[in-house]
Backbone:
C-alpha cells in the first residue's frame, strides 16, 4: 500500500518553529513606527511649505505707491547746501530703512494653487497627526480650533461665517483654494519606501 504524503499547512509549520508572538510584536512595533514617521514627514513638509508674509518689492508696488516711496526716499536722504548727498550714521540709516520698509505693504496672498502665507503661524503650529496601525491608517491635518475655521476653506476653497467684532455682526469670508496638505502628501509619497525599509530594518529578529 502506498501512502500519499500530505503537505502540512503553512500556519501549522510556522507555529512549530517560529516565535510567532515575538515576530508579531516586532512587526506591530515596526508598523507603528512607519505610520508615525509618515505622519511626521507630511506634517513637516506642510509646515515648511507655508512661507511667512513678506514685504512687497518696489517693483511690485502700484504706480501711486512707487511714486510715494521714491519721493519719501529722496526726502530722507540728508544733503548739504549744494544738494549733494551726505553720509548717514548707522542709527539714521536704520531709521530710514525701517521707514521705507513700512511704505511697502505686506504681500499676504500667494499665487493661486500655492500654499497659504502665514502671519502668526497658528495654522503651522496646529498641524498634528495620529497613527492607527490597527486600521492601517494615519490621519494628518490641522486641529479643529475656533481660530482655525478657515483651515479647510484654505485647502479646498469655500466660505467661512464668523462673527466680526468690528462690524458687530456675522460676516461671510470667501477663500480661494490654497492647498497645503495635499501637496505635502504627494511630495512625501516618494519617500515612503525609504521609511518602510528603515523601520523594518530596526525590527529584524
Residues:
Amino acid at each position: 500500500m502506498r501512502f500519499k504524503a500530505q503537505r502540512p499547512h503553512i500556519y501549522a509549520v510556522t507555529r512549530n518553529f517560529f516565535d510567532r508572538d515575538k515576530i508579531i510584536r516586532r512587526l506591530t512595533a515596526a508598523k507603528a513606527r512607519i505610520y508615525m514617521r509618515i505622519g511626521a514627514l507630511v506634517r513637516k513638509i506642510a509646515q515648511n511649505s507655508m512661507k511667512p508674509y513678506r514685504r512687497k518689492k518696489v517693483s511690485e508696488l502700484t504706480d501711486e505707491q512707487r511714486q510715494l516711496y521714491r519721493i519719501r526716499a529722496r526726502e530722507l536722504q540728508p544733503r548739504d547746501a549744494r544738494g549733494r548727498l551726505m553720509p548717514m550714521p548707522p542709527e539714521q540709516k536704520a531709521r530710514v530703512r525701517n521707514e521705507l520698509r513700512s511704505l511697502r505693504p505686506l504681500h499676504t496672498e500667494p499665487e493661486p494653487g500655492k500654499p497659504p502665507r502665514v502671519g502668526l503661524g497658528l495654522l503651522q503650529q496646529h498641524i498634528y497627526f495620529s497613527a492607527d496601525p490597527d486600521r492601517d491608517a494615519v490621519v494628518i491635518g490641522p486641529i479643529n480650533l475656533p481660530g482655525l475655521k478657515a483651515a479647510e476653506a484654505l485647502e479646498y476653497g469655500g466660505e467661512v461665517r464668523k462673527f466680526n467684532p468690528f462690524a458687530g455682526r456675522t460676516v461671510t469670508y470667501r477663500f480661494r483654494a490654497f492647498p497645503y496638505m495635499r501637496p505635502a502628501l504627494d511630495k512625501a509619497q516618494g519617500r515612503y519606501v525609504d521609511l518602510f525599509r528603515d523601520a523594518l530594518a530596526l525590527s529584524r529578529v
About this structure: The two ends are 45 Å apart (CA to CA). Helices lie at 10-17, 20-49, 63-76, 90-102, 122-125, 151-156, 181-188, 192-201. The longest helix spans residues 20-49.
